[in-house]
Amino acid sequence: MLYLAQVHKNEFLDQYQLRLLARQEAENLWTMIPEEAVILLGKSKTMSEELLVLVELSATGEIEKLEEATNWVMNLVQAYLTTGITPELLQQEAERAEQWRQSLTLQNQDLARRSLELEARREQIQALEENLKRERNGYHKDEATGT
Asked: What's the pTM value of the predicted model, to 2 decimals?
């Protein structure tokens, strides 16, 4: 699993560690990690303090890949922040999408109601047609018998 982490020096252990900040849930979906989650890098690893890194962890928590996050952050800036996409804009778009969803749900319910009404009317017309046929057949029989 991919994480965004920050490098810190653990003075007590005299080694660097990664503080996990966020976890990738899907391609463009990340979840913040609110609790203090750290991974020790070992004494042989030296890195710049406060450096942001992307770290790929195995299912057992072993570091599979570690790279600076500078390019990744710059790609985010390029993709989202240079086009004016702000959290407020995203919130507004999410609200508009929810309003559309609710509107479509209401329209769908209205169409379903109308469909049921039309079906009921069709059944009424069929019943009236059947009654009319029966009455005509009965009328013709009465004429034929002379009663």
From this structure: 0.57
